[in-house]
Amino acid sequence: MKNINISFFLILILAVFSLQVTAGELMSKSELEAEATNIVKTFGSMLKPKLKEAIQTGGLEHAINICSMEAPRIAKNLSEETGWSVKRVSLKPRNNSSAVPDTFERKVLEQFNARQIKGESSSVITFSEIIGNKFRFMKAQGVESVCLNCHGKSIHPDVKKAIVKHYPEDVATGYSLGQIRGAFSLVKSL
To answer: Total structural domains in the chain?
Structure first.
């Protein structure tokens, strides 16, 4: 009888522990999403002021120069500081060395486009998933009015020259306001 009570007690402890782990995993995913969202906000809060200043001091051509140097630098620094892999990807990449999506990112970007076409605002479109020992998070990057100067359908010839200078294989044009231009893609090892 004593062995049955001990066995029952051990099973009860394991069951409670199992439930706590499951609840912790759900909470953990929520915390990971919040952390990833904050990293995306930080990225934007670091890049946007630099682009605005570049436009004000040297025009759009200067902003393209700043963006070509600063965006990868910000992604690299955030990756090093946070322990996440941070990058931007697009189905129509401007930078073929860093913005080309992998298979997972391509699938999610296509889903983002479908969601946006159905009326969902690009500002709220996200996706996250735990795959093996990695947490993957993507946040849509929508086209804002200022983006149209360099990513729109009608680009000034001087701006086009600057784009070609920094991005000779650029295909990141032809967008309209509100479309999804790409996404922030973050990965964290668990």
So the answer is: 1
Q: How far apart are CA 23 and CA 13, in angstroms?
A: 15
11 within domain boundaries? no
How confident is the model over 58-88, as pLDDT tens digits? 999 989 988 889 999 999 999 999 999 999 9
CA distances from 79 to 98, 124, 135 (A): 14, 23, 14
pLDDT of residue 117: 94
Q: How many angstroms from the chain centroid is the CA of residue 21?
A: 28
Query: What is the rounded CA–CA span in Å between residue 49 and residue 100?
Result: 25
Cβ neighbors of 75 (< 8 A, separation 6 or more) are 43, 86, 87, 88, 98
Q: What is the pLDDT of residues 109-152, one digit of tens each?
A: 999 999 999 999 999 999 999 999 999 999 999 999 999 999 99
Separation between Cα atoms, residue 32 and residue 29, nearest integer Å: 5
Which CATH number belongs to the domain containing residue 57 in this structure? 3.30.450
State the residue range of the domain holding 140.
35-189
Q: What is the pTM of this model?
A: 0.83
Q: Which of 43, 98, 101 is nearest to 68 (CA)?
A: 98
Q: For the chain, list the strands marked E by DSSP.
A: 85-89, 126-131, 134-142, 180-189
